[in-house]
């Protein structure tokens, strides 16, 4: 299990945070997601055998948010 912090660009408010959190909760391999829109950060706990950074970043692109390490 890996715990990693990403910076999120495009996140503006609580609704964005909710959307992102909901998305990650349903993404296979993610165990935990906590989003802080004031800091524009998301901390993810995920199974590195099922997911990697590239997949995580890609998964959020259709929602209009960009993740950066
Ligand atoms: Cu928003």
From TrEMBL:
Domain HMA: start-end pairs: 2-68
Superkingdom, natural source: Bacteria
InterPro entries assigned to the protein according to its UniProt record, in alphabetical order: HMA_dom (IPR006121), HMA_dom_sf (IPR036163)
Segments traversing the membrane: none
GO molecular function: metal ion binding
Entries under Pfam families matching the protein: HMA
Protein name: HMA domain-containing protein
